[in-house]
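Follow-up to my earlier ticket, as requested here are the two runs.
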Amino acid sequence: MKENDAVQPARPSVDNFHQLLKEAVARTPARPAVIEPDGTGAVREVSYRRLDSLVKEYAAVLDGLGLDVGDRVVVEADTSAASVALLLACSVLGLPFVPVSPQTPDGRLQQVLRAVEPAVHARADGLLSRQLPPTGATARFGPDGLVVERPPTRSVRRRQAVLATDTAYIVFTSGSTGRPKGVVMSHRAIVTFLRAVVADGLADGDDRVASTSPLQFDFALFGIGIALTAGATLVPVPRERLGSPRRMIGFLREAEVTQVHGVPSLWRPVLRHDPELLRELRTLRSVVFAGEQFPVPELRLLQEMLPGTRLVNGYGATESMAASFTDVPDPLPAGYERLSIGRAHTGAEMTLVDGAGRVVTEPGASGEIYLRSPALFSGYWNDPEATAAVLVPDPVDPRHGQPVLRTGDLARLGVRGELYFLGRSDHQVQVHGHRVELGEVEGTLARLPAVTAAAAVLVPRGRDEVLMAGVVLDGPHAQFDETAALAWCARELPAYMVPRRVCPVPELPLTENGKVDREMLRHSLAAPRNTPDVRRPTNA
């Protein structure tokens, strides 16, 4: 008998992501857990009983590989019943899952694989092969099962129990150092958060929840978790449907969706080109949006096209999945300019702290948001320095030793204790709902042969803002090919992080303390000329 043959599977604790599925199966085993396209143009229903069966099938295969609690599994897929089952199978065995999108560029995927050193890289059936160096075991999965293509090296299992404090998943976001940053979430954090949000009434068992974000983003995991916790039905919207307002609305209508999760820019094409399509969504009861500001004029039109539909403004970071969900006034009052992010969800609290470290208590005053919550992330993967910068002592009273999340978000205090988001205190921006650290874009550009310095900013373009960059070349006669630079970015970065333009500049403008003057660069890049002159005037 081999050493691992006598070892029993790890036992999951009660506070485990998989526990949410077990509870739903016990309550309503025949209810659809997932509704998805069947490949013929129709939709199929996967019951909670069938989803649970698929989880057990996948878990049995994974367990046979001899993996230990804490070993990482990269899951490359779009959201589907099969990918949800694999995430839950990982949770049963205490294997942190690392979701990545099939659209992730090879360069970025390799960075993630090198960072987490996965025990298994599992890809959904039907994906095109990637030419990547081996980084462990590989597998394929789909409705018919999980097939191991290249097995891992068996090792001794050191753990026998899956604890609530163990890692449930690692989500990689944009990082300021030029590489992706892994956000580590525990089972306890995610389960506590989801139970609180459902208890606050965001969704119930009768909902059909449409998820529109790629699986690698926490908004997709949020939709999966909300559906499981409420015993509702998850409806992943196919990626190809999102590019066409008519096809997207048609799918939502056919699936009889009651709730849609998505970034505000999801609604922009239909609102601009064919808003009357929205009237076809007769079953829709609520829209949950997050990740970026929803322009008030567009919100007014959305309310007009969807009368009586609840609109919910979600606020928060990947490090806590979310912090608050606030209903948009219906109708929006005249003169309304900025949406409230309200107060934190049940079990959490947001506090404003000013530049002097004092708690803000006067209405109208502003400060940085600090979040107290049992649902905070554990830290950044293999980055204790970055973790210590945001998980900090409580500014109200640090003596108890419990860290709080320093969000980097600025807000104003309202007269009823509600908060109004004002922006960021650092160089993080949102591009169509996706978090982008400008430093990662700049670091990618700086690796180009002729580039000695780079800076990226958001530049206004009509009602939108687009990402642009200025680069300093290594000499007055250096050759620069913008098309090649953009192609390089497309190979190394997700599509939403690729600048619209990359313009050579004589030098980057600097503030008095020697930092890049991003406001001056923004104005210069917005000017209608190909090569902006961003040199600071001599009388500045």
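Run two:
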Amino acid sequence: MKRSVTAATAMALALATFGVQQIAATDAVRNGVTAKRIIAADSTPGEWLTTGRSYSEQRFSPLTQINTATAGKLGLAWFSDLDTARGQEATPLMVGGKLFVSTAWSKVRAFDASTGKPLWSFDPKVPRETLVKACCDAVNRGVAAWGNKIYVGTLDGRLIALDAATGKQLWSVVTVDQSKAYTITGAPRIIKGRVIIGNGGAEYGVRGYITAYDAESGKQLWRFYTVPGDPAKGPEPAYLQQAAKTWTGEWWKLGGGGTVWDSMAYDPDLDLLYIGVGNGSPWNQKIRSPQGGDNLYLSSVVALKPETGTYAWHFQETPAESWDFTAAQHIVLADLTIDGKPRKVLMHAPKNGFFYVIDRTNGQFISANNYAPVTWAKSIDPKTGRPDVNPDSRYALTGKPVVQMPGPSGAHSWHPMAFDPKQKLMFIPAQIAAFPYIPATDWKAAPIGFNVGVDMGAAAMPADPKVRAAAEAATRGELIAWDPIKQAPRWKVDYPAANNGGVLATAGGLVLQGNSKGHFNVYASATGKKLWSMPVQTGIIAAPITYAVGGQQYVAVMAGSGGVFSLAPGVVNGQIRNISRLLVFKLGGTARLPAAPPLSQTPLDPPPVTGTPEQIALGADRYGRYCGVCHGDAAVAGPIVPDLRHSGVLGDASAWQTITQDGALKEQGMVSFAKVMTPAETDAIRHYIIKRANEDKALVAKGEGADVR
């Protein structure tokens, strides 16, 4: 009898929860998304109104229908194929029974959240040549909702408002200087009727900032710069005058960096917006700020007043940043009891490998410890929070190469974490990878390509298949259940590759995450035990959400390999085909994916090597600086871009120049490089690729290598 009463009570509570959600759905259609509704997110647990579900960005859902006892019954409810075979990184929103999601190339689509019926689609028609400005694929991490509008930032730097019912464009503003290498890949946040958006481009030589626009009209309300500008242009706000004291040389001519390209969080009680600031431009501080200095506000968390953009406080995690250690990773807010005292904290696992707990009321450092292998710093000062940097890691000062962990991909990158406030655990999608930082010689800024002050050609993955295999074996991922109070892991799940998906935690005792090898997994959040897994034919790098419609709980996730790990290191992260889809699961789901086509196995058949050693050496250098970031180290491409070793125009010098100098394929993202290279230099790249293709063909013939394409 007790068990029957308990079961009945549980069922009644579940129905009540879903009933609240249904009422909320009706209210959403009538009144739209408001600050009150986002702040009270737990009262409508079936919806997902902002990218982190709530302003605290915990990505924790109170829904419990899918739990440790029922997770094994999950199945595919429905799916939708996408028309953009690039990396898919977006977090969907669910508002009023509708699912809204952005895709690669900044497109937006709306679906019926229960049936998957397409409702509308919007294409901002981003010029494909914009891709040359993007370090890490044509990705987009999500939309924002406010009132009855949907907002998206586009790769070419626009902020667009759409009618949530129809997808019709209502207004559009250009929020960057489109003559420079700015991009937008992050999701907007909306606070007090202000749409807040940052940008990327620090690798290419820009100055970072974040801007607020009126949600109704698109009028610019404020702009906050993250690094000081040219002193000759007049006095700047006090916070930038203070920052300028930490810079030397003429950094403003190189941009400075500090782009706010992803994470934000908001505390409505303190009325503070928290932003994560990116890396320096160039990475090499000796070029950027020759006499050193902390270089504020690079690699910092900064608190602002959202109505005015007024500076409140900052905490810098990597002073004198020189390694692409951005602080733009996921920011999470929570209340914790530390040393017997309640603290309002901000938690952060930036690229540099240390997990930070900071007092979010004033920026006071509380604690930090490394959550992944770290060699660039010995420890964090327990009083100040400053790192004790390994002197050998200061390649900009020593002028000597150094191999260290983490590298520019970070111990944790943009992939969102999730926090379980009941268990007081943070779930971190970490990655373990080293990188050789080699100072560039005779470096000059260029209008196209990476401007990082590091010899990217020399740092590229070597052609030797044995060395590549060793590098692949040493590059891996982890899902870490991290105790932020003890600053220690409680459990870990190992992955054979990096670039695994963002994370969702639920009150059902679950952690949900896809991985780069093509599986969507459900774990018990208390122990890390795998409860369910499904192969999905492609890598998952985005974060899932969960929502409820009509008494049914669903889980939605974007699938599609991409991002930097599918580009620059080539095959080091595995040959996983990009099949871009929106996948939606439920208990008892019976939908089936169609059979996946196999990866192409076109044999290597390059023309003979005719280039001189000097030409090939020049081509290797230019390829490393301008081509490898997309087409892969040592000309071995990942699965989402053409592998140039197989190019049909390698033997046709004239056709090659038509592409590389004249921009014949700019609509496919392959722009002209005439601004930065002569025809002789681009032809040298052709000779280098021919040599590489012949090397790999010979290895395949001897059985010592594999032509994976």
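The only thing I checked on run two: The longest strand covers residues 74-81. Let me know what else you need.
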